[in-house]
Amino acid sequence: MGMRKVAVVGAGMTRFVRRALETPKELAYEAAKMALDSCELKLKDVDGVVVGSAVDAFDGFHMKGEYLSDGAGGWRKPFIRHSVGGATGVFSCIHGWMHVASGLFDVCLVLAEEKMSPCQPHPQGAFLTVYDAILERPLGLNLTWIVPQEMNLYMIRNGYRSEDVARVAVKNKRNALDHPAAMMGEELTVQDVVNSEVISWPVHRLDISGTADGATAVVLASEEVAKRITNKPVWVDGVGYNLDTWYWTSRDLAYPVYVEKAARMAYEMAGIKEPQKEIHIAEPYDPFTFKELQNLEALLLADQGKAAQLLAERVFDRDGRMPVCPSGGLLGVGNPIAAAALMKVAEVFWQLRGEAGKRQVPGNPKTGLAQAWGDMMQAGTVVILKI
Amino acid sequence: MLYEAASKAYQNAGLEPKDIDGFVNAGEDWTEGHSIADEITPDQLGAVKRPVFTVNGDAMQALISAAMHILTGQMNICLVASYSKASNIKSLANITVMAMDPVFNRPLEENPYFIAGLEMNRYLYETGTTREQCAQVVVKNKKNALWNPSAGHGISLSKEQVLDSPMISYPLSSLDISPHSDGAIVIILAAAERAKALCQKPIWIEGMGWCSDSPSLEKRAWGEAVYTQIAAEMAYKMAGISYPRKEIDLAEVSDEFSYKELQHLEALKLCRKGEAGFLVEEGALGISGELAVNPSGGCLGVGSLLDATGAQKVLEVALQLRGEAGQRQVPNAGVGLAQSWRGIPTTSGAVLILSNR
Amino acid sequence: MSLLERISKNIQLRSWEGEFPVQYLYTFGVAGERFFRQIKENAKILGARCPQCQITFVPPSLYCERCFERTEDWVEVGHKGEVYTFTVCYRGMDGLPKNPPSVLALVKMLGAEGGFVHRIGEIDPQEIKIGMKVEAVFKPQAQRKGSILDIQYFRPAEK
Amino acid sequence: MDKSVQLKGTAIRESDIKEGKVLSTQWVPKAQYAWDTGVAIGRFLEELKGGKIIGMKCARCRRIMIPPRMFCELCYQPCREWVYLQDWGTVRSFCVSHLRWDASRMKDPFLPSVIELEGSTKGMGFFHLTGEIDPKDMKIGLKVKAVWKDARERTGAITDIRYFKPV
Q1: Alpha-carbon B7 to chain mean position
Q2: Collapsing DSSP states into helix, strand and coil, what is residue B77?
Q3: Which chains lie within 8 Å of chain A at 3 or more CB pairs, if any?
Q4: Strand, helix or coil at A239?
Q5: Residues B171, C125: contact at Cβ < 8 Å?
Q6: Residues A236-294: tens digit of each pLDDT
Q7: What is the ipTM of this complex?
Q8: pLDDT tens column, B172-221
């Protein structure tokens, strides 16, 4: 029994907003409905449903997946939820791929949803619950205390200045101006970013993506179904995921080797030998500016220490040699964790099909990559799509 | 705890962590007191810098995900891990209530056991099953647990003791409810060729199914476990089983509450609707009965292991099919069924059909 | 292979206490907002109808969970329903006995799919039966704030 | 999907909720836990009470690990060789954070740091705060030493060390 081919055949999403009136179920429904409509399928055509949602503490649901199931289209269907923290969104596509590639299902609806706004006084508070209850929480550890540690070390090791990484925000927020879901699209200069207030040195306010509410869905289908319902199936050519140790203080904070391992797993499956030549567009994870560059290097899409230079040379612009985050990414579109990462998969899908409208990159890209990063700065998930 | 369980699984399979292609963990954040509880597991499993992910669901759903991954051909050997640290939660009722709808259900501020009360009442009403028959399930399972060295809640009880135990949420009394336990279970799956090479007595997954009914308390089915019915249909179809009652030798089903065992047996088509109560009364569900159900002692006897419960069910069926169940061995067991339910307030369950042929 | 050192004296057992120090503010959603506005302002209970399945759902949702069509027609379903199942709950959230116990039921609204999980009042717990007709008792308008608790309880319906 | 597509999703403001324009309900969870410390962290906390920092050595790869653990996650071997570490070390990474965990802004910034304690294997970090230093003087490679609470105030918690200060 060989591996079955799996295609993305439809995608949908909600707007990303700071605070949505919609309940998580309703957000899920809107994204799922749009994805199904986009490929003219009905709920009865769906064999199984996969849901990704990152952190239950954001919206205060225990067993969040159970709550979401009907909005995600899981009524009386096989339904599973998974999470790998921030890496959940891209993993959703991988989990859905398993459903179809295993031969168990022909059509799988994949949904990622996050509603962060219910958390009071601020969604940041929920991050406290991510850390070690005994050794870290009593010190008040939070995201703005640890991610900058990575950024600091990463910049020092590679000799990057604040301006070098700030360009990521400028590019992505500009790209986002053309995205209908975006809440943080803006025309900025490098100086604007560098001059924005320091949240946690070396992180400035404009280096960070914003918490948000939103949902994204994609529909996966087996080769037989995909060829029947669309003339532009986008194939899931490679998947990879990897998790590093829980002891974050003993990891190499400057280089996410787990992302590299996830990428190599996906490249091997897709038969990709020279990623820098064979990948045409990329949507690496960009919750913070430096992460885009760091992830590009770990994905082997840029040599170590070279990403900032390529960025400055406009290689990663929408009309550059390798467009990176043409969607606008998390920095531009917004960051409802799991939904934002699955949005990256959806963006690659639209770009490869030539359906990205004003965001469309030139040159008919054939192969694209989406990546996310998560858990406690330790998880990498990678999907390679091909048309 | 998980490290020890994983070490034993590796030893039992004659493997080392480096032989494993992928790892799947089952668990929920709020029962850990930890957001993204996923992040803690690689170390315990020897899975640092390896493919690991978490299913926020029952361990049986995690196992199904691992099995699917093997079926894709990308992986040969996968490890499934799950554990319960129920003892560390000081306020389980307050956690369970957060699985309910915040707008429609939480404001009532009632102990979530009321959901089991509502469901039991409707089940008894629709099927004519009695509280006495449910009590008999408790007696049977707690007795089975006496033969299970891993079970913490084995005891010899009379039906009357169950019936007379304090009422929690009518018609559910305190002994109808499974106590919680701590524990860790690790299961290793391998593709057919690898399994044959590795293991003298591999247990084969013949069928798998899983399903969720409407999560809404207002719109779900109450009398029947529809989620299990649909999951079972899927699993039977895959396993080529047409007459479950004849073809299955033993079953481990979720008995989080006494009536659930009976309701699940009916949904699994192991008996007709309304019949399960009589079967337990007649002793047909005992270890040497016509159909052994929960020979391990079930949740009532072993203790509910939160999301690891499904793994306990699979483990018991595997031990029984290997003939390694010691004093509680079911004679001539060839095909077994394991079923799980995620507990109140959910309507999610999974079914696995296992065989030793 | 097992651990080489264990806690052998219970006095060495240590645990660390803690909790999740956050709270939540929920909006009711597109459908919920409309539903609770009517409850709050007009003591009316609305259901949403699926154009495909022809089922009226209470509580109303934006979509039909069965076929995924968007629900469009909203209809008033009245105040009367039927006890589909009930329970008498003797324990509070803390697990301790509760006096008096609460009588809770799933009330299915007549002519609709679904209804309310709510308290039953003005009744002796011994008297309640599956199939019994009940009606919603609303709080006075001034006290209603847009909540499931704007309905005080359901009570046996007058014939 | 072009820019012109009208996506669903209704943005509201916090003030809409406060002013009652949008209905809402509040929930305060009572999620309380008593996490078992386990053997390794139990001993570690006990030693902090005595003013000492203890780590664990893996017999196979010889790493001296902090925080201590009962098994080496890389060798997958049980460990039992306890090793005391110095209460001083080198800053391996840090940041200057103006935010508290609940996102409220602080005038005096925190200096969360990853510190490589003397006696532990290179690459092993220990997370704590740095203090008594002008944030501008913070740098990677700085030598810092633990500032302990008074022995009587120590409870066997990570906060028994107030912070680390430059040597």
Answers
A1: 23
A2: strand
A3: B, C, D
A4: strand
A5: no
A6: 999 999 999 888 888 888 999 999 999 999 999 999 999 999 999 999 999 999 999 99
A7: 0.94
A8: 999 999 999 999 999 999 999 999 999 889 999 999 999 999 999 999 99
B40 touching chain D per CB within 8 A? no
C-alpha–C-alpha distance, residues A27 and D8, integer Å: 8
Tell me which residue of D53, D57, D48, D46 sits closest to D80, measured CA to CA.
D57
Which stretch of DSSP H or E encloses residue B261?
helix B258-267
In a domain, B171, yes or no: no
Mutation to test the B interface, candidates C34, C56, C90, most B Cβ within 10 Å: C90
Length reported for chain D: 167
SS3 B211: strand
Nearest-Cα distance to chain A for D82, in Å, is: 18
CB-based contact B125 C130, cutoff 8 Å: yes
Q: How many structural domains comprise chain A?
A: 1
**Count of domains observed in chain B:** 1
B144 and chain C in contact, CB less than 8 A: no
* Reported pTM: 0.95
CATH number of the domain enclosing A73? 3.40.47.10
Supply the pLDDT for residue A1: 47
Domain that holds residue A336: 6-120+210-386
The answer to whether residue A195 sits within a structural domain is: no
Instruction: Report if residue A357 sits inside a domain.
Output: yes
* Contact status of B146 with chain C (Cβ, < 8 Å): no
Put simply, the answer to whether D11 touches A150 (Cβ < 8 Å) is no
Contact B169 C87 (CB under 8 A): yes
Nearest C-alpha in D relative to A27: D9
CATH code at B312? 3.40.47.10
Of C18, C20, C29, the CB nearest to A26: C29
Q: Which of A118, A97, A183, A120 is nearest to A381 (CA)?
A: A97
Strands (E), B191-288: 204-212, 250-252
Strand blocks (E) in chain B: 22-26, 52-55, 77-85, 167-169, 172-173, 182-190, 204-212, 250-252, 292-293, 335-341, 348-355
Cβ within 8 Å, pair C114-B88: no
| DSSP string for A119-144 | EES-THHHHHTTS-TTTTGGGT--HH
Backbone phi and psi for residue A354, each to the nearest 5 degrees, phi listed first = 70, 30
Tell me which of C11, C14, C40 to substitute to probe the interface with D (most D C-beta atoms closer than 10 Å): C14
Residue of C nearest to B214 (CA): C65
